[in-house]
C-alpha cells in the first residue's frame, strides 16, 4: 500500500469514527430502517405517553431505570427481563417504573423494522427524550448496544443512600466513570422522590446518636419530621429529592444541597466532602450544566456494553429470544 493511500485510509477512519466509542456511535441506526428515523419513533412514543398517560415523572423513572440497568452487569437491558429471580425482583428495583413505556416503544419499532433496535438502546434514547421533556437539554445518544440474556436479582448491588463519598468514587471508577461524572450523575436527583425509610435515620438517629444529621438545614429537618413521623406502621411516605424544582431537570438540586437541603445522605455529603465540594460549587455557578449532564449520561451509557456478536436484539424486552431447534439439540 502506497503512503498516499495509507494516509487516505487513516483519515477516513478518523473522520468515520469521530463520534464513535468502540462499537457505539451516534446515528448507528441511520439508513437501516428504510425511511424511518428510529430516534424519531422513540421520541414520538415518549412524548405521546407523557401527554396521553399524563405521567409527569417520566424523566425520574427513566433516569433511574438507566442507572440501575447500567450499574448491574452493564447497559444491557437486563433490568427489563421478567422472572421470579430476575433483577426486577431485587429490593432496590421493586420501585423502578417505566417498563410499560419501554414496551410501547419496542412495539412501535418492531412494527417498522423487526429485530433491529435493541432494548438497551431504547432505554438510552428514551431517557434522553425524557430528560428533554423535563426541561433538560438534548444530547446525542450513542447506539449500537445489544441486549443481555442473563438477569439475576443476586447480581444487583447498587450503592446505598448512606455510601461514603470516597466509596462512591471507587464504585464509579470501577465503571470507568470519574468523580466528576459521579457528581453530575447524582444530579439526576434533580427529579424524583425518595421514601422516608431511605433517610429516616438522618432525622431521628443519625449514626446512632439519637439525634438528626447536623449537616441538614433546620428548615429541611422540620419539613421531613412533618412528612416522615418517627413511627409509621403502615405508610412509607415520599419526599422530593430536589426541594425547589422537583419536576425540572436543572441545577437547583446542587443549589439546595449547598444550603443543607440534601434529602439523601450521599447527596448532602458531595456538597461537603473535600473530594467533591469544589465540583458542586462549579456546577452551581455553571450555566452549562445541561451540556455536562448530557455528557455524563453518554458516559454512563458506555458502561460494559455488549456489541457486535455479543448478546442479542430481543424481540420482546421482557424475555430472551427463543433459540431455534436444530437436529441434535438446541442452537
From TrEMBL:
Binding site for Ca(2+) 2: 190, 242, 245, 250
Annotated compartments: Secreted
Signal sequence annotation: 1-22
The UniProt record lists the keyword Calcium: yes
Domain spans labelled Plant heme peroxidase family profile: 23-321
Active site positions, chain numbering: 68
Membrane-spanning residues: none
Catalytic activity: 2 a phenolic donor + H2O2 = 2 a phenolic radical donor + 2 H2O
Annotated GO CC locations: extracellular region
Record's cofactor remark: Binds 2 calcium ions per subunit. Binds 1 heme b (iron(II)-protoporphyrin IX) group per subunit.
Sorted UniProt keywords: Calcium, Disulfide bond, Glycoprotein, Heme, Hydrogen peroxide, Iron, Metal-binding, Oxidoreductase, Peroxidase, Secreted, Signal
InterPro entries (alphabetical): Haem_peroxidase, Haem_peroxidase_sf, Peroxidase_pln, Peroxidases_heam-ligand_BS, Secretory_peroxidase
EC number assigned by the record: 1.11.1.7
Binding annotation for Ca(2+) 1: 69, 72, 74, 76, 78, 87
Chief site of localization: secreted
Cofactors that this protein relies on: Ca(2+); heme b
GO biological process: hydrogen peroxide catabolic process; response to oxidative stress
Keyword Iron: yes
Residues involved in substrate binding: 159
Pfam families: peroxidase
GO molecular function: heme binding; lactoperoxidase activity; metal ion binding
Known function: Removal of H(2)O(2), oxidation of toxic reductants, biosynthesis and degradation of lignin, suberization, auxin catabolism, response to environmental stresses such as wounding, pathogen attack and oxidative stress. These functions might be dependent on each isozyme/isoform in each plant tissue.
PANTHER family reported in the protein's UniProt record: PEROXIDASE, PTHR31517
Protein name in UniProt: Peroxidase
Amino acid at each position: 500500500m502506497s503512503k498516499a493511500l495509507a494516509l487516505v485510509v487513516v483519515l477516513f477512519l478518523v473522520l468515520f469514527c469521530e463520534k464513535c466509542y468502540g462499537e457505539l456511535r451516534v446515528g448507528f441506526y441511520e439508513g437501516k430502517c428504510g425511511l424511518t428515523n428510529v430516534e424519531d419513533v422513540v421520541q414520538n412514543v415518549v412524548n405521546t405517553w407523557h401527554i396521553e398517560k399524563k405521567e409527569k415523572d417520566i424523566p425520574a423513572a427513566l433516569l433511574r431505570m438507566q442507572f440501575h440497568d447500567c450499574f448491574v452487569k452493564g447497559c444491557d437491558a437486563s433490568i427489563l427481563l421478567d422472572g421470579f429471580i430476575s433483577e426486577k425482583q431485587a429490593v432496590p428495583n421493586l420501585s423502578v417504573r417505566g417498563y410499560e413505556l419501554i414496551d410501547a416503544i419496542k412495539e412501535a419499532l418492531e412494527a417498522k423494522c423487526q429485530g433491529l433496535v435493541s432494548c438497551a438502546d431504547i432505554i438510552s434514547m428514551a431517557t434522553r427524550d425524557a430528560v428533554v421533556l423535563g426541561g433538560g437539554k438534548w444530547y446525542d445518544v450513542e447506539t449500537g448496544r445489544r441486549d443481555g440474556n442473563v438477569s439475576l436479582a443476586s447480581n444487583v448491588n447498587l450503592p446505598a443512600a448512606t455510601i461514603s463519598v470516597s466509596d462512591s468514587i471507587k464504585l464509579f471508577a470501577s465503571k470507568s466513570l470519574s468523580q466528576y461524572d459521579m457528581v453530575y450523575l447524582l444530579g439526576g436527583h434533580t427529579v424524583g422522590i425518595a421514601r422516608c425509610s431511605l433517610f429516616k435515620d438522618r432525622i431521628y438517629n443519625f449514626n446512632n446518636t439519637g439525634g438528626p444529621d447536623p449537616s441538614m438545614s433546620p428548615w429541611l429537618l422540620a419539613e421531613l419530621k412533618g412528612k416522615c413521623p418517627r413511627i409509621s406502621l403502615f405508610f412509607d411516605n415520599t419526599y422530593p429529592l430536589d426541594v425547589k424544582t422537583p419536576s425540572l431537570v436543572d441545577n437547583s438540586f446542587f443549589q439546595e444541597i449547598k444550603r443543607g437541603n440534601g434529602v439523601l445522605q450521599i447527596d448532602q455529603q458531595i456538597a461537603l466532602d473535600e473530594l467533591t465540594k469544589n465540583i458542586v460549587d462549579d456546577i452551581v455557578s455553571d450555566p452549562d450544566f445541561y451540556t455536562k449532564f448530557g455528557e455524563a449520561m453518554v458516559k454512563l451509557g458506555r458502561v460494559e456494553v455488549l456489541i457486535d456478536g455479543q448478546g442479542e436484539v430481543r424481540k420482546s424486552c421482557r424475555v430472551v429470544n427463543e433459540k431455534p431447534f436444530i437436529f441434535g439439540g438446541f442452537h
